[in-house]
Fold each of these.
Amino acid sequence: MRAMPPACIFVSVIGFSDVERHALNTLFRLSRDGAVAYAPWEPLTAPGVPAPTAQADVLLIDGACAEAVMAQARALPAGPRLIWVGPGAPEQAWRVLDRPIRWAELLDDLDAVYAARQAGLDGLDLDVSAPMPLDVPEPTRRRALLVGLAPTESALLHQRLALRDITEVDEAGSTEAALDLMGRHAYVCGVFDLDDPHFDGWSLAQWFARRHPHALNVGLSQHAGPLAGWWRRRRVRRDTRRVGIHALLPKPTPVAELGEWLGRL
């Protein structure tokens, strides 16, 4: 088992579905490669084993579960920062997130907890917008990641990437698969369908930008095309800059524009 880095933020997790807990566990595992790790905090590991002397740094609570109601009834502790997911957040909630959970935003909040602790500002609402750098090894062979792409777009990307001598191409059709691949491989390029309703392509693209800051980050959206309204196109392009996407292309993907961007690899 890989040892935790010296800096670790412990998160007490209450509620959440099996799929969400799997995604959380994946994010916790991936964070072990960075300067700061995030790990689940368990009050008891076995019968008769005393609880850790230090309390959790963060309470992450699913507001839709019965445990959340019980947690409020027990009077939530004042020390840990409370991140509440869903409706019915109590007044002492430090952050409130909606579903689907934007995992990159959750990581930004955890980074803020660590930054506040380092600065001795545990009692203040410190906002950290710049993500903490992660050390990612350079790939021995150039590799690309495709997330949520339709068969025609996938075939086009395979063809155009091969022209750049990139034949190691992974494909993911779910949030969990994408997170797992990002944790196991280093990439020079990632392409994300931002319109697929089955997963949050925006958060995955943002996490890819954090994990692979030197890779080409491409987003595909029908709202980037000429048939989309002017305001919608403007908003989508603003969001791409916010999450770290370099190239926003419409669907169906224009071959010439795609080739121009891939030519930078």
Amino acid sequence: MKRQFESPQPSLFEVGEPSVVLTLAQKTELAMLVETLLREIAMALANGEIANDQDHG
């Protein structure tokens, strides 16, 4: 018999009410932060600053 344990953390794909409700200002700030991070990653990739994790030499 399988035992099912209740997870203290909801599933990533769980449908339901969000546990945190953001204000419009917080959503805007979060969107700007994500956009900035994505731009930084893209620039690092374009400049060859990100190496292969397996390349330790």
Amino acid sequence: MKKTKFCLFIFLLLILFSCNNNTSTPENMQKSYVPIFKTEVNSRGLINMVPDGNPFTNMKDASNIMTSLPLMVGISEAEGSFDSLTQNLSKQDGIGDLGFDIKLDSANSKLLSDGSSFLIYNVYEDNQQVGFIEYVYNPATKSFSYRQSVMLTICMKMGTEVVPILVSPYTVEYTNIPLTISNGIISYVVGEYKDNSFIDNGIADFIMLQYGITKSLEFQRQILSSKFDNGIYYSVYRPTSFIKKLNTKEAEILDILSTSTNNTVSTLPIRTTDQAKAMKIDTLNSFIKYAYKSGEKIVSHNYSSFDDFNAASIKEYNFESEANINADFAENPVCYDTINKKTASAKYMDPTYSPAFKYILDNYDNNNIVIQSLPGLTFSNDDNFGFPHFGYTLNNNDESTKRAFIKKHLMNCGIPVGAITEDFLSKYKISLQ
């Protein structure tokens, strides 16, 4: 009898061990890294970019940060089953640090066939969906990919009226970005320089429908070099960025606008905030399908694996035959301290106006700066564009000091000094004479 009881005891132990072991299998329990969208609640958004209490000091900084960086303000470590992960992330729904109402779409977030975790978020403005965010993390390679797309309808006061001054579907994409984790600090580089060439895995695209109060039919592609480290983002547009004219596509563009807004918008430029608010997720999705070869796949949000997500990239677009604009492209150097809510940037408002580094260097010591492409807009420059917070100094006006300033930012963006040759600098058209 004792022998029988002992065997039964061993049998029960084996069952218990087996059950406990099954609850910690990779399918149920794994370490993951997930996006962060808020460190505290504040407000800013597509229509009102600079209300009281936000981390941006003026329209210049708000525009620069939003059009260079993702809506996520970091990445954090998480451990547990995928179900528990999505439950916890759902509790974080709400206004993110950059002022958009971001909510996890739990129903369409899922584990992919290769064990990667796919998360999708809906982006809202004034209780209507205006965009989405897709994030997929591959535990096998400790890499992530990220895609966000938002229907931008930025309005501001011009004289006595509030009018739309920038109307554009806007998409940021990071593809297959390795994470570096050291002493609990998570960092990553986008547009890395490796083996004597840049990896083009960071893109920021505008399908520019309107700039200022005039129509501006352009496809603007910014190629990014960016770095996130210890809570601080650094970013710059590389010289390979370009603009294509879409004037021959005007009839097709107007048809998309009219169809997706129930005829609320059928002409350009957009005149009222009501028209701006009529362009939401349907308009955005229509333009994604129109602009990108993988557009149908992207708006379906249906991916089977990490590689499948990466293959559905915005990299291939449908405007190859359109004419390029021969323009000096603003580099848009920005810094954003997500912890202390500090920003530094050059003017961005018109990306074809002038090289942004030159704009900083020419105006660094001026008491006020003027957005020349939007007459009448003047901002205080008491903080020297915000760069002293990030350790940038410009103590004199000689060429070597100016070049050191530029090189410091490029290196902060993850570009090694060996890549910052005279030829590379000359492509920014910053020959300081």
